[in-house]
Amino acid sequence: MTTKLTPLSERSAWKALSAHHQKIGDTQLKQLFAEDPGRGERFTLEAAGIFLDYSKNRITDETLKLLLQLAEESGLRERIDAMFRGDKINITENRAVLHVALRAPQGEKIVVDGEDVVPGVHAVLDKMAAFADRVRSGAWKGHTGKRIKNVINIGIGGSDLGPVMAYEALKHYSQRDITFRFVSNVDGTDFVEAVQDLNADETLFLVASKTFTTLETMTNAHSARDWSLAGLGGDEKAVAKHFVAISTNAKEVAKFGIDTANMFEFWDWVGGRYSMDSAIGLSTMLAIGPDNFRAMLDGFHQMDEHFRTAPFASNLPVLLGLLTVWYTDFFDAQTVAVLPYEQYLKRFPAYLQQLTMESNGKHVTLDGERVATVTGPIYWGEPGTNGQHSFYQLIHQGTRLIPCDFIGFYKTLNPLGQHHDMLMANVFAQAEALAFGKTAEQVKAEGTPDWLVPHRVFEGNRPSNTILADQLTPEVLGKLIALYEHAVFTQGTIWSIDSFDQWGVELGKVLAQKIIGELESKTEPALSHDTSTTNLIRRYRKNK
Ligand SMILES: O=P(O)(O)OC[C@H]1O[C@H](O)[C@H](O)[C@@H](O)[C@@H]1O
């Protein structure tokens, strides 16, 4: 970093926000709505076909003004420009951060190390499309001449969560005569269960790994290779028809035994958790076809352009990101619940967990100083209405403040009687109940005995966003994901952290490597761990 950043707590907007929070922090949403009849319409924003109602947040016009000022003071504009320009803003890995280039239309120019990366992106997309067409049409044959009926993606983290989420989200558009499965865990059960009813001669494995060195993925890929060869008469030549690789690391791909002609490339400027729209999305393209995949990319791009060009006050990802900072740092909210009222988005919260928490789970600033404020909240959630019958109790009546993002669609992909209206009624009802609650007077007026009244009171004043879109199409999915990607970027910029590295995952990996040897050694290993770890290892060795 060339210029040293003003520490967050010394930025004038931050100080003003602290004072402002003292003043309005306890103000009730009920009061804010009563005082301002236009609030429910004014605090909304529609862009790129995504509608956001943020009126049920504990904010006033002044809060918004100060949050937007904080974005300016934190250099958000410059950071956005730097990212889109291909600057190496991932400073700890000295890398550009260019997931936006993955959806840049042909003809756009984004230069990294003197090279325009956009033509390469489109060359890979074309290669993926040609391959996907062959597999989907049956032109691509397995080793024994049969068509591919099963596709198994082997990957973990960003090489799994994005593909699974997108496959589930876009299942409506998928080719139903191909079975898709996803193997990620190094627990052998994951692989064994995924293949137990499949024939090797009809099964294609996609080995997805940015580094192609990840322990879990390589272990699963080797087991897949053994399983394939066993089912195909042990002929090594079969590998070429049943394995393709998706990676940035051609050397390791070749070492594994996959012909690099069967490799779909991406680049070090694509972070794992930002890679589901790169070649890592090959399973998605195989499922929904190249046209739908391109429509998804177009959706991403529309949100990218909105984020890049819209003034902050009318910028969806900026507002979403700033509101999260507001609750995390001033209300001590530790989590954000993401609640999609759309069954197809059932894996969206899990996907967002890596996107948000691996990005902003950081405790040092870009300057290497310990942060002075709290950073990345915990994201979690389940699709509605299921969550309502499980954990919503705590959101409504517990002691914690949990800001919620409700996500819903005007139209369902599966019209069925009254189902969709019922589903959406629940979105609106939950947000209303959280915000406005139910007073003791109201409870009493219903004839509730006095002793029961406190139990039945809803305090309200629980904030939420409601995000609405037309229908869950590939394009809309792209927009939604980009919305969160850029909201995470906005948060990371305010906190002045590197949202694009993930050093926190390293230590456990290194220690596990050592312990694997200790668990497997034939002779009693000399152990030099703490007494707890030593004891656990000994106990496992004795009982395994
Ligand atoms: O794609 P790979 O190189 O196999 O990495 C898979 C995942 O593992 C790492 O540990 C990181 O925490 C993730 O960011 C990454 O997505």
From TrEMBL:
Keywords, in A-Z order = Cytoplasm, Gluconeogenesis, Glycolysis, Isomerase
Protein EC: 5.3.1.9
| UniProt xrefs under Gene3D superfamilies | 1.10.1390.10, Glucose-6-phosphate isomerase like protein, domain 1 (3.40.50.10490)
A Gene Ontology annotation in the biological process aspect, one of them, is:
gluconeogenesis
Transmembrane ranges, per UniProt, are none
One matching Pfam family = PGI
User: Which CDD domains does the UniProt record give?
Assistant: SIS_PGI_1, SIS_PGI_2
Q: What is this protein called?
A: Glucose-6-phosphate isomerase
Q: Which organism is it from?
A: Tunturiibacter lichenicola
**Gene name as annotated:** pgi
